[in-house]
Structures are given as structure tokens and as C-alpha cells.
Amino acid sequence: MGSLGSLLGRAFGGLVDTNEKQLKKLEPLVSRANELEAACVARSDDELRTTSDALRSRLSSGASIDDLLPETFAAVREASRRSIGLRHFDVQLLGGIVLHRGQIAEMKTGEGKTLVATLPLSLNALEGKGCHLVTVNDYLARRDCAWMGPVYHALGLSVACITGRQDDANTRPSFIFDPQYEDPSGHWPRLRPISRAEAYAADITYGTNNEFGFDHLRDNMVADLSQCVQRSLHYAIVDEVDNILIDEARTPLIISAPSEEAANRYVLFSRVVATLRRDTDYAVDERTKSVHLTDDVGIPKVEHMLRAQGLLKGPSLYDASNYGLTHYLQSALRAHVLFSRDRDYVVKNGQVIIVDEFTGRLMPGRRWSDGLHQAVEAKEGARVQSENVTYATITIQNYFRMYEKLSGMTGTALTEAEEFDKIYKLEVLAIPTNLEYQALRPGSSLVTAENKDEGGYKYQFYTQRDDPERQPVYWRRKDYPDVIYRTEEMKFRAITTEILRYHVLGRPLLVGTTSVELSDRLSARLRAEPLRRIAQIMLLRRTWMAKNKREEDGRQITELQFLNGILDLLNVSDMRKMARELEISFTPEEPANLERLLTEMELPTECAPRLKAALEGGIPHQVLNARKHTEESQIIAGAGAFGAVTIATNMAGRGVDIKLGGDLSEDMIKSVNRVLKRTGHPDPYDLRMEERLQALRQVSPEHYSIYQADVQAFLDYMSNMALVKELGGLHVIGSERHEARRIDNQLRGRAARQGDPGSSRFYLSLEDELMRRFGGQQAEGLMLRLRIDDAVPMEVGLVSRLVEQSQTRVEGANFDVRKHLLEYDDVLNSQRKRIYGQRDLIFTKDDLHQDVIEMLATEVQRRVPQALEEPEGPWKLLDWLDQIQPTLNLGGALFPSYSMRLLLEHLTKNRGQYTSPADVQDALLRLAGDSLQAESEHIQRSAETLLENTRQRLDEQLKERAEALDTFFEGLGLEEGEEPRTPRQLLDELQSMVHVPLRLTPDEQRLLRTEPRQVREAIRQQVQAGVTAQVVTRLLGALERRLGESLELSPDQLPVGDWDALSEQVLQALQTALEERRQRLLGEGSASASPLARDLENALAKTGQGLTSGQLLGLLLMMPQGSRASFDKKTHRRVMTRTTRLTYTYFAARLLKERSDEQITEDVLKHLEAAQETMRRAWGGGEFSRLSNARLGELDPRAQTAIRLALDEETCRYLETAPLNTLDRAQALLVVDALGRRALSEVYRQVLLGVITELWVDYLTQMEALRVSIGLEAYAQRDPLVQYKSKASALFQDLLSAMRLGVITRMFTYRPRDLSSVQSELKRTGSGVDEKAARLAEAQEAEPLPEEAIETVENGDDEASRPTDEREEGLSRSQKRRRRRH
User: Fold this and answer.
1) pLDDT digits over 217-253, tens only?
2) What is the C-alpha to C-alpha distance for residues 822 and 826, in angstroms, rounded to an integer?
3) CA 1341, CA 1178: separation in Å to the nearest integer?
4) What is the dihedral of CA 413, 414, 419, 423, to 10 degrees?
5) What is the phi/psi pair of residue 889, to 5°?
6) What is the largest CA-CA distance in the chain?
7) What is the pLDDT of residue 633?
8) Is 1122 helix (H, G, I), strand (E, B) or coil?
9) For residue 135, what are the β-bridge partners?
């Protein structure tokens, strides 16, 4: 161990001192684990299985997790040796320590990273928080769980895996290792299916990065805490860490789904917009290409249609609750008004295809964003393709940064050490291979030697220290210099020739490419025909050179240049002609040609049959790329077999080793180890394969016993492996340099695994992408000037170094891209943490009353001062308060809205004066008159404002149309030389410009073409009159909709030329209509003749003497409701429709005038808190009645906690054996309050979660749109990131405000779809309520409610916070009758 520093220096070319020092510090821990191994070996299987429990006990007693490391590692090593026949090497313990410390262990391919991970996973699992092993695909997750499962099981630990592939039940399957389970399919015999939550509850969980990340997002979307599956993110090891944390870091994890409702909404809004009229319902700005609804006509009209569809929420279209609707509306407006068929798009085969505005070409596959394409599809009646709605998103970086401790392992991490450090705070430590570790330790029998091969290339190997002949025992990989060609064609020929040569020899080949397209091209070259063509070229070139006594000197040969063209385009006739001139056969399979080819390719004579077979039938090979993802492991497992050829796209992150001779299962190795152990070998588990073979040869076959088949398979495998080793092992060919050095290094790293022989070579061309990007043109120009033959390659170290420098620059640029992406996501990530944190708090907090009250107080304190600053503010404030808390019918009591409470206070000030029903009727009629007067004054003020605004808009529109008219007539004088248009065409163009229908006589139309000046003034007058008529029509329509009845006016009756006179006439008509309505409702001369008076008289006759507050509230609720006779055009019958006769809001607003901001705020909050208390009592009463036969222990935990907090300990002990209905009245009321508080908290929980989820999804859409558009800020010389942060902060504050408002809007009116979701659960159901329970329920009902709560009256509003049937559940028949009579 003392020579570790020199080992690292020699093995890795002098790594930084920091790496050496840190690894040296770990040596004592490895030594301590070795010392403890003997004690672990002496334990029985049962004793070993209790190791984890014993270590956990020590951990809970105060020992640190680091204190337990040596003993845990020793136990894991022994468990692995017994269960799967693999014993951890010392260098693997070193890697395990690095992983435990939260660092990245760079370990070469084949060094057993899967086995290494069992060490830190077993150690950190002792803390009971769960550990994750992150793999690159589902296959590896299952394989490693099943493979390493026996190790964990031997230690008493549970291990599970999660996968992303959905099963028949459309669920994502999860499995736990169970040695007793037999899979019916036979694929994974020890993996038993379990739920997702059970998989995460295991001590150790294997899975892919996508599944871990998606489960985190799904957990933050659930509506019930029981639906969450993940535990806290404690500790994770990321396998192939560079592939996951770097390569996949550009793509965020996104959970989205097609919105079918959205598709239907586009169709609905298309129909809505189709009914709108230009310049009446909407206006168009041609300069900015925008369209918007008109305030006076368009908006009210659309609101009316959406309200009829049940879509409109809140008071107006542009209320925060209707944000989603405005998106569909604006998209539909743009589609109908601004985008035209056969100009901006065409409809072809039922699909909308965009037309390029510059070239006029069709652009199939392209779609407009922001819902515009869907809106156009709806407009044209095509199938609306559903848009995806993002529900949750997070980047790979930010997900993994949430783990308390993170580590990783891979074969190539040092080149990305800077990114790992800056993004993840992970340090990279290079771990030597086991061979290097063993060879360079003090006293080792191995030494490093160097030699040259037949090509003159130097290579290194390990030999015995005492071997004078220096025979290789183990090898280090030969990395040949890069071979560079000018053209890609010649590079592919050289690669194909090398593949052919080594395949004929039987040496396995791995060919790496950078794209699927390159893999397919190389695969095509290995067919028989291209191989034969290359062989023909080789024959022609060799024979020509020999006949003309020429040697290859790199210069172009004119006679042979035609052979350097594209292989598929070569002129075969010219080649045949040359063959005849050279007097050779053109068939490469003929014996003489085979002999020439063997000589040219430096192949032995015995290879002739394999060469002939390849030329006739092609080279058998496997192609590994994205299309064969599921076959990945099987393809790689066979890549080291004799004669195997494998073409792979990007070998990074495959997670499977290539073994020389083919694949050998671990079960076979275990069988061989058992045979050796039974025959007396002291330690078969720590042997190398060659040593295991020598030991097995000393065993008589009769001792093979039941392991005969496995032993024979092992012997065959070793024979094949020896043959492949003799040929030189796996040879790796790189067809192009990847832009990341580590990808090239991982490809090379597949060769020379664990001391096996192997080599690698990269083939480049000056036409490769990396070469083109970084100076390949200069080198190509030099080769052309020097007339270098394309068939002659270059081996120039300078070019290779330039390539590596280019890779470094690209890696830096890619790092900047990922860092830039992270900088943007960090903004959203901080917001995401806050939102998800609030969700977690909502799930776990028992009582949410105070949180909701604080939100309510914040909003009220904000709104009241703002409302009182505006003339129209008070009535808007009351309107908002009545929306969030309307009059509530709570089964046994009415609770008035705030406006109603103000009116009640106004009426009851002089309540003592009401000595008869007639006095009450007079008071109510006076209130109705005051309300009508206040509403009339409001309507008149609004009309005056509307008239003034309309006048300004009319002036603007007249000016715009005059400019358009001038433009048209000026354009007529510029048409000289063009084909004259017909008068009708000119008229159509003019009408489209001024947006007014024009009526011209035939003579005027003729003059429009010949003498336009003569009709200009007449047209101007028509335009002015038309525009004015449109504006006045919209004005009258808006006033009539506001009034609710006709003004009996038409534009023809009004002096449109004199706006002041028009305004006066309109206001007079409005005043007349208002006065008529007043007379109609209140009566002329005799109040008893009015509809209101008759209704009041009938209602008061039923009340009897002693009018209660509840009855008075009922009368107030009745008065605005009226009916009107109308004629149904469909049924041709007279029908009665409900109408609103009067509105209290404007009069109630006057009652606030004498109060200050502070007084109103305090009064409003007191009123709303009383409403909340009344709801709590109502819920509690119903719950108590339902649960009255239950004992305390039979309730769910939350209900038990609520009751225990409300009652003293003695009473709680009493309730363990007695039902709730045995409590006295005072105690019962305490329980009622506790149960009501608990039920109402569950209601608030659903409200809060629903609002957060709904608005968060909308917010993600906004943030994505912001991120896409923010780049335009750079044109204004502003930093886009700074602007993004600023705007994101403002949007987030708006989100929080919208969430607060959303909760407040629903807190008094929300109705759970499933009552059981907010009710307390019973372990058993009672048989009913006995007589004593009934008496207690009656006593609870008699308990006075807050003074604002008023008992139910016959004429009360039917708006209930809980269903009456549910309120009556558990009551006796007599109680129900009394309740209903009351």
C-alpha cells in the first residue's frame, strides 16, 4: 500500500497531488476492513443476516456512519463471496469508500462498479432513509437488482427496483428481490412484483434517472399524501454518472399530457368568434396585426355567451379566474381575423399546412405556437390536434442536487471534473484498476515492460519479474495513432478493409460511430457487394503498382484516380477494362485473387476460406443504436466472441462489459467456485479466470458432480477466450472523433479489460464535422496543393493534438450551454421548492384554519383601502365580498352575506317601530325604493361615462377611416401601366379598407374608376355616416344590456351629427326607462298595487306575529327575485323566466360612507370569521350525529387527535370504553367544535391543493413562454437572464396573489365531491343513535350560533354548505320532523 503514490503516477501519467493524497488517506480504512474479514468469515449465515440490525443498533446508540464503515464493508465482502461467489478486491473497497464520501469514482470498464456499489449502499442503508442506485436503463435496474439481491439479502437488507415500462394494467411495475419467488414468465425468477411505494420503502432501490425524477414530480402532483411513493432523497449513487448528469442534463424532465378539453375549447371558441361582427364586437389594428374585443359591446356579448355555456367564472372575462379562457379567445380571434386560408395556410387532406410568407412554399410538419394552430384547425373544421399541457418539470441537475448525499461512478469522469464540481459540488477521484493496483504494490511479482509490435508501434504489458524472456502475462491497451484521410469515402474504405481483415482473422471488433446514420452506412458497407468492390479495387491497385514498378509514396497516380470516387458510383466497366489490361480476373473469389488479397491484407494462408466466405456472403455483424435499445445487453454480451463484429452508436453509458470469448454467466462462475471449494481449494473466489482454469484442471472430472454442464461451459469459454487473446483481443475502431473526449475514451475503454489484450484506432477525415468546424479546410487545402493521393492516410501527431484541442473547446461550449440552462432553471427551481414546500406543509398540518384566516386578512386589508380610494370602489368591494361569501344555508341556519348583513342592520335599527306586518312591509318597500334609486344613479353615471368614451372612440375611428380613404384615392393615381380593375373590384377593396358597406349607383361606380374625385366627397359622407351608425348601435346595445330592457331608440331616431344632443336624448330615454321600472315595481299612487308589495304581503301573512331576523333575511332574499312572461320561439308557447328586479349592492355601498378603512376592515374580517365559525359548527354537528355511537379508539387518528386536544385526559380515557353519545352537553359541544374544525380543515386542504395545482400548471406555461421570448431582450442591449429573473420574480408574486385569491374565492362555497374525503373514518359502523344521543344532538342544536348566523326561514336561499340529507344522517324521525318544521 505504501507505493500508491508512485502507482498513480505511473498508471495515470502523473495525476494531481490532490488525488494521490486523498486516496492515501483511505488506505487505513481498507486495511481495517481486511482485518475484520476473518471475523465475518467465521459467522454463520444466520449471524451474518443479523449484521445489519446489529449495526443499526450501534448507529442509534451514538456511533457515526463512518465508524461503521470497516465492519460493514467486511460483512458485505463476505456476503458477496457466499451468495454470488464474488469477493471484493481491495481496490474495490477503495472505490466504495470514495462513493460513500459523496464523490465520483472513476473506474475503468470491467472493474466491477456494480459490485463496488453494494458497499456504500449497504452502509448508508443502515440509516433507514433509503438509498438509490441510478442506472441508465430499465434492463440494468432489473439485472443489477436481481444480480446483487442475494448480497443484500444475506445481510438482512431489502432491495427493490422500479421500471418505466408500463405493464398490461397501465402501471409502472416495481419489484423486490425475493429468493423464494418464481416468476411465471421465467425472465426474472427472484423479482416479485410490488407497489411503487413498497419499492421505495425498501432499504435500497434501483431505477433509472427518469423514473426517480418523474416519481418526484408525480409526488408533488397528488391530492392525497397517501398517494406519494418516494421517501426523502437521502443518498444516491449514479452509475455512468457522466452520461446521466452531463449528457442528459440538457433535457429537463417534463410531465405533460394532451389536453382533450383544450381541443374542445378551441372548437367552442371558434364558434363564439364566428358570431362576432367586425368594428362592432371587435376592432383590428392593421399596423400591429392585432385584434381585440370592444369594451362596450364585444366583451359583454362574449361574457354572455360564455356564461350561458357555464364557463365564465367571476364577474368578468378578464378576472383572474378566467385567465385560461382569454387564451382560447385570443387565439380564435387571431385565427378568424388575421389569418386567411390560401394565403397564410392551406387545408390539405384535412390538415392545416403553413405557407411560408417569404417563399410561398408549403411547410408541412411546422405548427404555429401558443394555440394559434389549434385555433386555425378549429376554424377550418379540421381535427384539432391536442396541445400538451405541462403539469410539472425539473432539470436533471436540480433533481439530483436535492439529494442529501450524491456520488457517482463511471469509466471517464476526469475530463468533466470542472462541471461536476461547479454544478454538483462533486469531486472526481481516479481509482486504479485492480491489475495496476496489484502489479505495483510492494513485493509484487509483476513488472511493467515495453515492446514494439510488427508495425513498429510501442505498447506496454505486464510480465513476471523473474522472467528473463519478458513474456506478457497481462496487457495494457494499444492505442494506435489516428489515421487521417482527406475524404470521408476513403476513410470508410479503410475502416471496411480493417474490419474485413480482423474478421477473417477471427479477432472481435467494436466499431464506434457518432450517429445512427453513420452506423447504417457502415453496416451497408459490410454487405457482400461493397466488400467485393473494395477487394476489386485492392486487386487493381496492387497489380497496377507491381506491373508499373511503383511504390506508395503518397503522391497522386493519375491512372488510378478514378478508383477513389464514391464506391456506389464507380464505373464498373472501366474497372473491368483495367482488369483485362492487367491480365487478371475481375472475380475476387478466384484462388489467384484470394492469394493476392491475403498478401495485400497480411493474412495467413489458412484464412482463405473465411475471406472467401466474407466476400460471398458479407460480414455477419450486429448494429447497436437507439432502434435496438431493448437488445442492448444481448448484443454487447456477444461482442467479444470469435469473429464478432459490432457497430455501436456512442458506447457511453452501456453498463455492460465486453468479455473476450463471449459472455459467461455469473452462475457458471459460482458453480466452478463451488467445485473448487469442495475439492479443497482455500480461496477460489479471489482467483483470476486463468488461475481458476489452472486450478480446475487439477480437479478430476468425476468431482464435477451436478455442475458438469456449467464446468464444461466454463472450459469452452476459456478455450475461446484463449484463442481471442492470442489474436490480440478486442480491437476498437472509432469511425469519427466525438465532440466529447470522454466518449472516445469510453469507446477505447471497452478493449483491454482486466489485463486482456486489446487495441484501438480512430479513423478521421477532413470532411468530419469536428474537423470542418476547427480548421480542417486548411489541412485539406495543403493536401490538395501537395497532390497527396486520397487513398494514402496521414498519421500526424500534430493533427491528433489539434483534434483534442478542438474537443476541449466544444466541451467548454457545451458546458456553457448546460450551465446557462441551469441558470434559467435555478430561477424556477427556487420557486418550485417554495410551492412544493407549501404542498408538503398543507399535507402534514392538522389545523389549517389560521393559515386560511391569514390569507383572508391579507386580501381584505389590501382591498378595502384601495376600494375606498375610488368613487366606484365601495360597491365593487361589496360585490367581491358577496361572491366569496354569499348568503349560506347551513342546514339549520342562514348566514347572510356581508351586504345582506349591512341591510339587516339598517332595517333593525328601528325594529322597535315595527308594530305590525304593514310596518315591516313599508320599511322593506322603502329599502327597495332606496336600492332602485341608488342603482339608477349608478346606471346614469355609467351611461355618462360610456357616452364620453364612445365619443372619443368615434373621433378616432373617423380619423382612421379618413386616412384609409385618402390612402385608397392616392393609390388610384399610381396604377398607370397596370391592368385596370373593374369598378366592382375597386368598390370591394374600398369597403375592405374602411370596413363600412357602401352603396354606389352604377354611375358612381364608373366614376370611381374614371373620375374618382367626383365621388370622393359622397363616399366620405357615407363612410362617416356608416361608422357613426355602427358606434351608436353598439352604444345603445351596451346600455340596453346594462338596463335589462329596451330603450325604444334606434340610430335613425337620434341626431348623430350632434353628439351633445344625442347624449341628452339617450340619457333622457334612460332616465324615463328607469322611472318606468321604479313605477312598475313600486306602484303608481298605491304601493299595494306593485308586484313587490303583493309578494311581501303574501309572505308576511305566513309569518304570523313576532317577525324573526331569519324571516326578515328571507324577505330580503325574496324581493330581488321576479319573473317575466316571454314567448319561446322554438315551442311557440308563453313561458315565465326568472329575472332580477333590483340590486342591493349600490345602496349597501352607501352604508359604508361614514366608516373608516380600519373600521370596515375590522368589521369585514369579523363577519367572515363568524361565517367560518358557523360553518365549523354545522360540520361539527353533522359529524357528531354521525359518530355518536363510536368510541374514541374507533375513529381515525386525526379525529382522535382533535378530540384529545379538546377534552381532558380523564374524559379521553372514559371515551376509550364509552361512545361519544354518553358525554354531557358541555363536553359534547367541545367535541362538536373539534370535529367541525377537523372537517373544515380537510375542506381547506382540498381547496388549497386544488388551487395550487391548477395555478402552478398555468404558471409553468407562462414561464416557458417567458423563457422562449426573453431572448429578444438582447436586441435592446439588455441581459436576457437578468430580465428573465426580474420578470419571473414579478410573475411569481402574481402567482402567490392569485393563489391567495383562489383560496379565498372558494373557501366558503367549496363542496367536496366525495363527503367521505373530509369526514372522519370509523373502524366499525354504529347501528344508530340511541335516545340519549338524540337528546345530546338536540342540545347541540340549541347552542346559540354567532350573532350573525340566523335560523332558516321558509323563503331563505337554498345555497347550503352541506347537504341537508347528510346533516340529518343519524337523527331520529321526530328530530328530522322538528328540524324541517323549524
Assistant:
1) 999 888 888 889 999 999 999 998 988 888 777 677 8
2) 6
3) 9
4) 60
5) -100, 105
6) 137
7) 65
8) strand
9) 208
